[in-house]
Amino acid sequence: MDLVTGAVGSLASKLLHLLGEEYKLQTTGLTKQVQSLSAELESIRAFLHKVGNVPWYRLDEQIKVWAREVRDKCYDLEDVFDSFLVHLEDPETADPSRLKRAMHKMGDLFAKGKARHDIANDIEDIMKQLVEVAARRNRYKIDDSIETKPSSTTSDPRLPALYKKPSELVGIDEPRDALIQMLSVGGQEKKIISIVGSGGLGKTTLAKAVYDKLININGRFDCWAFVPVGQNPDQRKILRDILIDLLKPTNAINALVNTRFSLGDLMELDEKQLIDELREQLQGKRYFIVVDDIWERSMWRTVDLAFVDGNCGSRLLTTTRKSEVSKEIGEVYKLHELSDNNSKKLFHSITFGGEEKHPCSDELDKVSNTIIKKCGGLPLAIVTIAEVLARKPIEEWSNVYNSIGFGPDDNKVEDMKKILSFSYYDLPSHLRTCLLYLSTSPEEQFIEKRELILRWIAEGFIHEERGKASFDVGDNYIHELVDRNLVIPVEDKRSGILQGCRVHDMLLRLIRQLSTEENFAVALGKDERSSVEQSKIRRLALLMLTKETNYKDMPRLRSFNATICFTELIPPVCSFKVLRVLVLEYCIGMEGYPIKHIAKLLHLRYIGLSHTPVRKLPKEIGHLKFLQTLLLDDTGIKELPSSVRLLKQLMCLRVDEKTRVPDWIGEMTSLVELEMYHEVLPDLVIRETPPVQKQEMHSGADNKCSIRRFVKELGNLRNLRVLKTGLHLQDQGQGREFLESLSKLHKMQDVSILLPAAFLEMDMGTEPRFALSSLRTLELLNLQFSKLPAWMNGECLPNLCKLKVLLTDADEQDVGNLGTLRQLRDLTLVITRYHRLKLTVCGCGGFDSLIFLHGGPLQFVPETMPRLENIIFSITVFELRDAKISFDFGLENLSSLQCLTVGLDCADASPEEVEEAEAAIRHAVDTHPNHPSLLVKRSNEDKMGPVDADSRIFSRKMYKMLQDSTLNEQIKKLNDQIDVQNNCNSTLYNQAQEMAHTIPQGHPSIAKIQWTSVYVVEMVVLRKQLVDTFQTINDTSDPDQLVYFTSTVLI
User: Could you tell me which residue ranges the Disease resistance N-terminal domain spans (predicted)?
Assistant: First the structure.
């Protein structure tokens, strides 16, 4: 019933909004009505808060009916207020005529006057209905019907977990032995371990298995106790139960002194007396106590006072569903779902009495595997479903499973629902609403974090708190759901940043049922139908629809979500007049769908059209004054309507690389997230492109102007947190301008500049210095810095988790500066200088959090990168051997190394050198104490071959000349060197001529460019032809084309 509380809360905030100065209702007859309504709603809200804290199975049916009536009236009233706000925010007229603008304003005044009159009538009608509802509350004495505490006759469905036979346990041995090992490690001081995991995962069963094994080892402990806690615990009872359990005759003989209290006396002791008695009994004893199912930190702090530490080797084991609780208690052991193999064993042990008794049948295996997969490794779900199916004929299993709800038809299923719902009812009201919203997600679907927060904001579930923006509040909500193990977190494996979440199938079933019962949302799969009356549906999700529905008459629909559906089966959205959220993702056949009508849905806050071929937006989309989110990635839209600039509340805009960047993006100052690309085509390619294709391409000059404007105006977007784009910066001045704009965005968290057609080398002598304390991700693959920027350190970027950077040169001090980034978990470091083939990581600490490293090889010394697990190295064998650098990288000094991937470039190296390199790397891995996995990927094996010493010496001289030269200087030096070459190879010349006329659009990395330029001596071509070709490319003013030709032709 908590959804009612949420509806009232959302309505209350709107009432305050209407009473504000902005709408000046004080001058109308509405003020008293709105104030009276606000007072009535506050009274209802207080009462419903009590109702919301009582689980559904303990609520009187009369209360349920009454609360649903309140909820529906509140929703209706919210629709009235939303419509009123829309009328007051009429779209701006685009007509430049003064007379027409004046006429529009006059019409606007009349419309607003009529809107005030209409809302007064609507409020009066709904007030009468609410008064009648409130009267029934008093008449039927509903307040007296609320049972705030469980009755004494209610049994705890978790109790059976304490009495399972060892033979019934599957997959318990490994976690049990791991926990016993953890408890055994350490000295004589008291040690506490907390098992954490979601409901139904088997925490109690595991704790009892550990307990049973340890107390049966003679002499291990002097005394022991196992005490369940649960929600809303009586702390005196917990302390008393521990004391009683310790005093049982089955405990160690004479382990405890005789207590001076009888059982009756214990019942009268207060908390302090019980704590004192426990401390006296445990003093000087080696005890083992399990405290099961802790929900609150405050409760643990009190109980822990009784566990005296006498340096006797005492141990405590706790279980909880909340990560925040487990972290405070002690060392954390996270319990995971059963493996697929153990899930099958458990399922078959119940349905057939054992794995060996499982009948061999492909059809049966298919049905069983489907059911087991749906249970998602959750032991409670597997046991519950298996026990239901064990009583049914095998041929009925599929139908029986599909029909299993969470109703009272089966006690086992009802018990499972209760266990899963404990976590739900422990949530505060705002989080219950947010969790139920996930019921509209497809099964096993990844739910992107930022999209979910934006939907919550659009629905009105999140409001700004003092000192916190709504987006930050939503971020806290998701982390709290993760900490409570109600959703499965999905993190970036490298950086550890939370990307989103998934909902366990069994929990999804529960919240879908609760959501339907409360008329909060309806989610329908392929052939499903809902029992909810169409006209009352508020939120509808159509998931992988295959048949046409009759869901068309839904005047109160606030959220519509269609995922993987044919659009001819989707009802037209134009009839959903109060729609706030519209999601059409991965939908097929949009050609005939009336998408243009979305501009008439003036309540819209969120439009998600990702991966649906829309092609074009209506030009009137600027009328949607309340629109906050517009997702258009992978839609094929080539240009945004200019009216988008009128969307002053827009927080998130995503388009793809096909969409032209508008001139006015700097005006969108409310943007929190921007994903937008700049497609820049090199002038040379445009010139060589056939005329027909040219018409389909953006003008290179226009795009360069667009980039220049974008870079300059980027600094205006002061609320921006996420920027994902591709930029081909033209010169160092533009590069500095980009960095200066970036330095103004103090709220920025994630910057990803994807690798464009080319990149710009930045001289770091002119860089701006700045600090972005909120920045977590920085991927600057469009810039190659001459040296590590001074601001890339732990002081300026204290929260940076992920960094991708290209450097021309670096030294050990630069690596040391990167080591000060204490939160850095993922580093991609590319250094293009030939003499920096292997840098030494200093042993003075740093890189405390680094887990993933990608780039050229480094030399590791002891006590560096203590958490580094995964390395990807790119090695050019010839270069290392030519520079007389060994293949010993000091891997033995990386204590946490788990995985090594090495890319071996074999070009110009002899087969013997390649084998020597790979053998050295394999030896280092084989002798590493962790025995990390190794993957070696060879490239350019066809280019292996013996290289004579004279050629290598000449190549080295050539490289030294080219190393620090400008491009024009390189041309001159190449020209001079070719003059002294007497050998001419006509085959290579012909190949060079061919390549000169077919320059590809893509460019290789700078590292490859410089390394391959070394081999000019092997690329003997006619002097005049080569220089002419160079000069032709150089005339295009595109230095990247010149460098590309230098490297590719001369290789």
Answer: 7-92
